[in-house]
Model the fold of this input.
Amino acid sequence: MHPKDFKISGQIIDVLNEQLIEGTIYIVNGKIEKIVPEKTEHKQYILPGFVDAHVHIESSMLVPAEFARLATVHGTVATVSDPHEIGNVLGLKGVEYMIENGKKVPFKFYFGAPSCVPATPFETAGAEITAEDIEELFSRNEIKYLAEMMNWPGVLNQDPTVVQKITLAQKYGKQVDGHAPGLRGEQAQQYIAAGMTTDHECFTQEEALDKLKYGMKILIREGSAARNFDALIDLLPEHYNSIMLCSDDKHPDNLVEGHINLLVKRALAKQIDLFKILTAACVNPVKHYDLEVGLLQINDPADFIIVDNLESFHVLKTYINGQLVAENGKTNIPSSENEVINNFNTNLKTPNQFKVPAASPNTKIKVIEAYDGQLITGSLEVPAKIEEGHIVSDLTQDVLKIVVVNRYQDSEPAIAFIRNFGLKEGAIASSVGHDSHNIIAVGTEDESLCQAINLIIKEKGGIAAVGSVGEQVLPLPVAGIMSPEDGYKVANAYSALDAAAKSLGSTLASPFMTLSFMGLLVIPALKLSDKGLFNGEIFTFTPVQQPSPA
Done:
């Protein structure tokens, strides 16, 4: 499929100059040769394509080539992608896999050099990405930035390795992405002064304003798990030059439904100025990261989309480098053969490995409190339910057992308890477990937990549900976190598993996405790694059982 010379007419939305031009665009060799203002019969609107300013492609459970097939249908022409998920599994080899797989399709993938692999020393990852690896990545044109610096304590304390990575980014003229949920005031100012230029983790306007004040750009995130659009969108009218839109993590079923286009439509519904919205959705990522993405200017690459009108904002066509890659809700990008690489080495488990002996008859347990639509969690302390000397799930209080199994080597599972998953029977499990991607599972009893975990071990990666729904598993053999198969088929299989989890009782909007973040130690307050229960506010392990007076 080669781009052809052609022209296209309609209402041209020139975002950079904030004007609407009725006219015709002439495309030659995939670039915009000229724009001629003239009367036209075409009422369609032509505008720059959308850019997801921060996404982990791996969270779609699709390899880049398949992600592109789904995203272009919604008008996305480029992504700013942090490959630290596969980096935690396979290191530099994993990052290179993402770059090369992305080249199979006409889509503009731009990647960051992962800054925190492993994410913390408090979990077992499959690989390490060193400062030397980062320097090697910076020599590649596809690598545009140092990806999210989650180790904000290391930044503030001037950890030598952290400083070395930031210095390398500055040496090569690369932006540095931040990641500092809840950081405010003097600490935020210090973090930003050290070179962090963006943050996608703000969950209140006050926090975002604090960071904007010190010169940081704020990404409004609306993904499958973390949804901050409603909390932050009112900042856009005043701060549109410092705002971008992103998904961060988008599961395949949600990607079939929409992408950045949905955020644009929601912003329009709030009567926010069109040019300000499109500045955030299209322009700011291109300028901030210096992307080779066209913005509907003469000599730009012909990267643009056509929508029917400014109310329904239905994407009719998507062009990348002058090539029609999607039209009328269908992708024109064919599915490709995708290589499988992995790092998965643990043996099948037995139910006895998930038993928790009670320290005393009156023991209390610390419980992770999951929040729907948030990565942050709460911390509770409740009386343990004890049967035959062992602490068990307490369905009446919605306190269920949560387990993390090291998938890189054989070791005993880490076990804790969690509230708000809502399961009434069975278990769900996933080898998508940010950031180290060990196996994480929540269940009502040990047999189901073991069964779900073993389904994933047999497939060397996947998501699974067991119970009255039977045994259901979606294999994810690429690094244990992605499928090499057709993206739409994967989305359907994921939807079936999502429905299975909900039929087991889960009340969460996206049970598997929420599950995948319950091991993300850099987000407070309480999380579980393969090494134990972890307090993300003070960065230390904490015991599950809290003995109480008799």
The two ends are 75 Å apart (CA to CA). The longest strand covers residues 19-28. The first helix runs from residue 64 to 71.
